[in-house]
Amino acid sequence: MLDDFIHQPRVAYFSMEIALRNEIPTYSGGLGVLAGDTVRSAADLELPLVAVTLVSRAGYFRQEIDAQGRQVEQPATWEPRDWAQPLDAKIAISIEGRAVWIGAWLYVLEGYLGGRQPVLLLDTDLDENHADDREITHYLYGGDEIYRLKQEIVLGIGGVRMLQALGFEVRQYHMNEGHSALLALELLHRYERTPAFVHPGELPYDIPRVREQCNFTTHTPVEAGHDRFSYALVQRVLDNAVDLATLRRLAGEDSLNMTRLALNLSEYVNGVAKRHAEISNTMFPGYRVHAVTNGVHPLIWTSEPFRRLYDQHLPSWCHEPEQLVRADCCIPDAAFREAHAQAKQALIERVRARTGVSLQPRAPILGFARRMTAYKRADLLFSDLERLKAISRQRPFQVVLAGKAHPHDDGGKRLIEQLHAQARALEGIVPVAYLPGYDMDIAQALVAGVDIWLNTPLRPFEASGTSGMKAAFNGVPSLSVLDGWWIEGCIEGVTGWAIGNAAGAEDGDALALYNKLEQVVLPLYYDGQDDPAGWVKVMKGAISKSASYFNSHRMMRRYATEAYIR
């Protein structure tokens, strides 16, 4: 099967996590889901890619919620043999003085038109390895700093060696976030120059040649969010195999900053939204950071009722999602309402089965689902419970929440517990359901079945965000803080609504949210029950203006023309 993929040069796409399918827990959230959509669109468009990631046998974790609303983490192990093919090649790298052997599994991701993309899942759980080393590729984002560094060595250095061992001809390397930046070090060693051709003060590597082959996508708009490792740790774990003087010049004087390393060794660098690129150019002066705004996969994130609707009226939508720009004039309003009603009923039934909360089909549902951490501000909606109750008494609404907190994020865990307490305080007035075990399957149901997609990050921490894009494919408008992609996507009253403005004060966001909900969004929804044209117009705007552009097919075409072909 591998022979099907090594006959032509490919772009090697490296990502610590990739969401391949719901049954394979090799992802934790947005970064992995984006990576999965990237590979899916590459398959649909038949762009020659090979993805490289870790097998993450123990997954991220399976979330349960106890009676007090506390997150309980359960193992999420999976068996690679059930979904992937073992490959014969093995390569070795040196970690802490030991030879660590790395094997690989081949997962073939198939596009809806028959395109196929290889995904290599790197695995250190081999008989040849020390017991500790066998666990390096077990836990996604698990362990301490040493464990994380070992994982990034396996991904970056091991990934490059594995591609070579398997016979892949790589024309470009694409680093999805800085976790894989050590691949550039491996390329430096591959293109090490002979001392006779090195001038005094020059590094003994062909850096321009490495830069020509590397692309880097950064996803983190704050300096503190980038991976850093002390040089003492790096020298110890990599057995002094790395020239420290070179590392300091390329990755920072004080510590190995993976983002700095990727910036210095990549010819093409991009942020994941226009605003994020602007912030990155400010954070990293002297580098040119382009903007390629993220997108989501059209087929995966469109619910079955809307797939049928688009197939009937815009048959080429799935391969050319830009055709959705015509949705506002080509699809009857009644068909929109019926498709959404089916998706909403499916969500209502799921919520009742999983939580026991009964939601009403006539009342609007607000949806909020993402990683539970402080800057996402899942609690902003619940800042003033009395105001929330007063709004709901006038025009009833319902709320569905979902999301995991990282096992080491105590603040995120407390947030989940707090949300459950607030839900109990609103009982009888505002129905609130929290769906446990957030995964791709739940996300698909949520983005299709709610009426309004809520997003309330603390500016400017949302580099892009993609959940609102997924909602747009299902005719669900966003009510969101102006950050990330929504700065580009928001057309007030057409694709959804803004909470405050792009430079708004943090302490005014809750008031702005309540005012917009009470005075604009809910009145339009309830007016739409008697005269549905107004609400359906916004649903159509979300599709024709947002989904037609914020999709991963457009994103991959941008990468192909701007980064890969040069």
List the helices and strands and how they pair.
Elements: E1 10-14, H1 30-45, E2 49-54, E3 62-65, E4 71-74, E5 85-86, E6 91-95, E7 98-110, E8 116-123, H2 131-134, H3 145-166, E9 170-176, H4 182-190, H5 207-213, E10 214-217, E11 228-229, H6 231-237, H7 244-251, E12 256-257, H8 258-264, E13 268-271, H9 274-283, E14 290-291, H10 304-313, H11 327-330, H12 333-355, E15 365-369, H13 385-394, E16 398-402, H14 410-425, E17 432-435, H15 440-449, E18 452-455, H16 467-472, E19 478-481, H17 486-489, E20 496-499, H18 509-530, H19 533-547, H20 552-564
Parallel strand pairs: 1-2, 1-9, 2-8, 9-10, 10-13, 13-14, 15-16, 15-18, 16-17, 18-19, 19-20
Antiparallel strand pairs: 3-4, 5-7, 6-7, 7-8, 11-12
How would you describe what is shown here?
By secondary structure, the chain is an alpha/beta fold. It has 2 domains: 2-193 and 205-295 and 555-564, Glycogen Phosphorylase B (Rossmann fold, 3-Layer(aba) Sandwich); 364-550, Glycogen Phosphorylase B (Rossmann fold, 3-Layer(aba) Sandwich), CATH 3.40.50.2000. Helix content is 39%, strand content 17%. It contains 20 helices and 20 strands. The chain has helices at 30-45, 131-134, 145-166, 182-190, 207-213, 231-237, 244-251, 258-264, 274-283, 304-313, 327-330, 333-355, 385-394, 410-425, 440-449, 467-472, 486-489, 509-530, 533-547, 552-564, and strands spanning 10-14, 49-54, 62-65, 71-74, 85-86, 91-95, 98-110, 116-123, 170-176, 214-217, 228-229, 256-257, 268-271, 290-291, 365-369, 398-402, 432-435, 452-455, 478-481, 496-499. The strands form 4 sheets. Strands 1, 2, 5, 6, 7, 8, 9, 10, 13 and 14 form a 10-stranded mixed beta sheet that branches. Strands 17-16-15-18-19-20 form a 6-stranded parallel beta sheet, sandwiched between helices. The chain is globular, with a radius of gyration of 24 Å. The mean pLDDT is 94.
